[in-house]
Amino acid sequence: MAATYLPTLKQLQYLVALHDSGHFGRAAEATFVTQSTLSAGIRELETLIGVVLVERTRRVVRFTPLGERIVAKARRVLREADELGDLARAAGRPLSGEMRMSVIPTIAPFLLPRILPRLRKDYPDLKLFLREETSGQACEGLHHGRTDCVLLALPFACGEVETASLFDDRLFVAFPDGEMDPTPSIRPADIDETRLLMLEDGHCLKDHALAACNRPELRAEATMLGTSLHTMVQMVDNGLGLTMLPEMAIDAGILDHTHITARPLDALNASRHIALVWRKASPRERDFRLLAEVLAATRRG
């Protein structure tokens, strides 16, 4: 019987890295090998299966149609290989070993400083690798196997995932002292759309705030230019307009030493829902649900 030669996981990793980066040098850096090693590994893979997967020119790396299909399959194979290790970890101590978690930028700087000390204290064997990225990037990374779980604000279409609810995070209107009547809350009708500053596209907080206000003209008139909540606060503090902030950011002191007033938004669904999500049927579901309990308890405490 003739021997069957199968692609190695390393060859598949090289192929996926090249697809993600579109550049041999960057793909080599991402996989911690030399460019010649990565190029040779991909050529060996092409020889093994007898087809060209990548068209190489001096300026462009272009995958063939079959190459695209092989990359999609390679991602699934690599994710399944990762889950072999997950099965072993799941059978051991809870919340131990490596875990990769993505956190969106409107959560990370406000919640992580409270969460991480408790995790280090209560689960010293957990090695938590964090990645800050937008909701779309985080969900894509989750389904590609780059990330194990995502700390996310809902509603957001993240695909077929399991979800553990953590808490609701109210939305506040933040404005320069004296610009609006300091009533206990602010109605959407009281917001001057020509003064509204919002995060740029890609940040789901913008969509949550605009949906809660239910004023279509706000989306048309608002200035979408902030790259972070801290940048938005600086612009408001300089009198450039008003913005929306989540309660967790205010609790974390984002308005300290500013001349900004913040009041709750008085509207239906004037909050975002914070949740931990992971791939369906993950062997580490028990770990993720325990992590969600820790996150929710830390918020309450």
UniProtKB/TrEMBL annotation:
Signal peptide: none
GO molecular function, a single term: DNA-binding transcription factor activity
GO cellular component: protein-DNA complex
Keyword Transcription regulation: yes
Domain of life of the organism encoding this protein: Bacteria
Keyword Transcription regulation among UniProt keywords: yes
The entry's keywords: DNA-binding, Transcription, Transcription regulation
The HTH lysR-type domain, residue ranges: 7-64
PANTHER family: TRANSCRIPTIONAL DUAL REGULATOR HCAR-RELATED, TRANSCRIPTIONAL REGULATOR OF OXIDATIVE STRESS OXYR
Family as reported in the entry's similarity comment: Belongs to the LysR transcriptional regulatory family.
Protein name per its UniProtKB record: LysR family transcriptional regulator
Species name: Sphingomonas hengshuiensis
